[in-house]
Write a structure and sequence with these properties.
Layout lengths: L7 E3 L6 E3 L16 H5 L7
Length: about 45
C-alpha cells in the first residue's frame, strides 16, 4: 500500500495531518496526536 493511500487524521494539538503507522494498527481509532511531543503538550495553551 502506498503512503498516499493510508488513512489520515489531523493532530488535536498542532492541527497537522498525519498518517497511519503500523505501531498504531490495533489502536488507530484512539490515536489523537501525531507525536509524543504533541501528546505531552495537549494541555498547554499557545496564544
Amino acid at each position: 500500500m502506498k503512503k498516499s493511500e493510508l488513512p489520515m487524521k489531523v493532530c488535536a494539538v498542532c492541527n497537522r495531518p498525519f498518517s497511519w503507522r503500523k505501531k498504531w494498527q490495533k489502536v488507530w481509532d484512539e490515536v489523537k496526536y501525531c507525536s509524543e511531543k504533541c501528546r505531552r503538550n495537549k494541555n498547554v495553551n499557545i496564544s
